[in-house]
Amino acid sequence: MGNGKKAALSLLLASTFLGACSQEVEEEAVDPKDSKEDKVENQEYLQSFQGNLGHVHGLGYIEEGFAFAAHTGIKIYQEGQWKEAIDHSHDYMGFQVREDGFLASGHPIPSSDLQNPLGLQKGKVSEEGLEALAFDGESDFHVMGAGFANESVYVFNEQPNSQLDQGFYKSTDLGSTWDSINAEGIEGGVFQMAVHPTNGETVAIATDSGVFLSENGGQSFDRISESGQAGGLYFTEDELFYGLYNGEATMTSYLIGESGTSDVSIPDLTEDAVMYFTAKDNRMVIYTFNGSAYISEDGGENWEKIVEKGETVS
Question: Which DSSP state fits 84?
Fold first, then answer.
């Protein structure tokens, strides 16, 4: 595989009761909060989707299902059905799922009044807006990692902005303040980042030369994989999952703190490899460099294709 493969209403309801001419007109207002809760409970912020995802820039599990950050917005694979988030049709990059929603960078749709590029934004698929955290109108972070249950965010800044030069940076307060990190030991072109869900000092980086792990906040990294194009970074509390391609595609589970590894069963990927990976309980989902996606309901023993060459599979 060549380097070319590396590649987010309130409603007011009034009921009017008309009686005889001598009777008063009464109005009964419904609390807009109730309407919002109904919208969320019924998932009215999602609609059916079939078609081409375009480029995918991130993958994670949210309450609604497995979320793909695609070129035309957030697409969700939910219990065998494809949905899309009505209010989130932006081109999200650096997409990272958190316990309270997601973080993303990228570009807004042309009809939006958001600044382009997005910088670092926080959102939730069930809510309409985005919260700008940093560098909106300045930066598009293609390579970004964020903790699921901590406030650490790591970025590789490709172009200088008003505060950051080119290079590796870390925030421990969701983008309010930033510090440069040395990232000693990294080799190759930086492709992907992931942060441990609870320990913000533990971060992994995938490059075209392999997988590198830091447990000191990104100051230094150690190689933990063989040489090859890496991707599919995903942390659990005890493990780091990663994909590698060095002639054939593999998936590995690395036991943090003990350096032990075990193979993870994946589909037969001919001239293809794992680009993104996520899991929930015994379910696993992968997205590949060539634009296919697969789901396993049994920890990787069996896989079903749900996207083929960018197109959703019913």
Answer: E
3-state helix, strand, coil in the chain (%, to 5): 5, 45, 50
Cα–Cα distance, 191 to 147 (Å, whole number): 18
Closest C-alpha among 168, 130, 188, 255 to residue 3: 188
DSSP-derived letter for residue 81 is E
Upstream peptide bond of 117 is cis (omega within 30 degrees of 0):
yes
Q: Measuring CA to CA, which residue among 277, 239, 291 is closest to residue 260?
A: 239
Contact 171, 185 (CB under 8 A): no
Q: What is the rounded distance in angstroms from the CA atom of residue 204 to the CA atom of residue 225?
A: 11
Determine the 3-state secondary structure of 40 from DSSP: helix
- Which one, of 61, 59, 63, 123, lies nearest residue 90 by Cα? 123
For 82-138, the pLDDT digits (tens) are 999 999 999 999 999 999 999 999 999 999 999 999 999 999 999 999 999 999 999
Total-model pTM: 0.88
Spatial distance between the Cα atoms of 240 and 230, rounded to a whole number of angstroms? 13
- Name the nearest CA neighbour of 147 among 99, 212, 179, 105: 99
Going along the chain from its start, the domains and CATH numbers come out as 3-312 (2.120.10.60)
